[in-house]
Design a protein that fits this description.
- This protein has helices at 21-30, 56-69, 78-82, 87-96, and strands at residues 2-11, 16-19, 35-42, 47-52, 99-105, 108-109, 116-121, 127-136.
- The chain is elongated and about 50 Å long.
- The chain has four helices and eight strands.
- Strand 5 and strand 6 (108-109) form a beta hairpin.
- The protein has one domain (2-136): Jelly Rolls (Sandwich).
- The chain is an alpha+beta fold.
- The model has no long low-confidence stretch (mean pLDDT 97).
- The N and C termini lie close together (8 Å).
- The longest helix is centred in the middle third of the chain and has 14 residues, at 56-69.
Length: 138
């Protein structure tokens, strides 16, 4: 049996990082998934999903690293297409990726002690983000 859940998040943009690990734990529990996996996917080309130790200083480090990878004060060719200034957002999201699959065993996500799953909004303004959790049970 396969399950799908939609989560709607309000984000601030500018590399806003939201811990969705509790949503994943609830999804696993609600659907009685004992073995298998849960895929976390965010819609849109300026959002991403990854894992991180979700603590304030590492969140700052992550934001600083993204600024070095795709600086927000640089001119991007993307602006010529849509006349917007979020070229850096698209590059960052592409580098990080839009999904992660988390293995499940014994009814628990197999995450490390300090590992959380996060959704990152790289866009240049607040957004309503749609995130999907998809998984099945055996």
């Amino acid at each position: 049996m396969h399950f799908l859940k939609e989560i709607n998040l309000k984000t601030e943009g500018f590399t806003d990082i939201i811990d969705v690990t509790p949503h994943i734990s609830s999804f696993i529990s609600e659907n009685e998934i004992k073995q298998g996996g849960v895929t976390v996917f965010t819609r849109g080309s300026t959002g991403a999903v990854t894992t991180i130790e979700y603590e304030p200083n590492l969140v700052k480090d992550f934001k600083n690293a993204m600024e070095r990878i795709a600086p927000s004060d640089m001119e991007y060719e993307h602006k010529k297409t849509w006349n917007d200034d979020n070229g850096c957002s698209h590059i960052r999201a592409s580098v990080v990726g839009c999904s992660e699959t988390i293995p499940v065993s014994g009814g628990k996500a197999l995450l490390g002690t300090w590992q959380q799953v996060v959704v990152v909004d790289f866009d240049t303004g607040a957004r309503n983000r749609t995130v999907y959790l998809s998984g099945g049970k055996t």
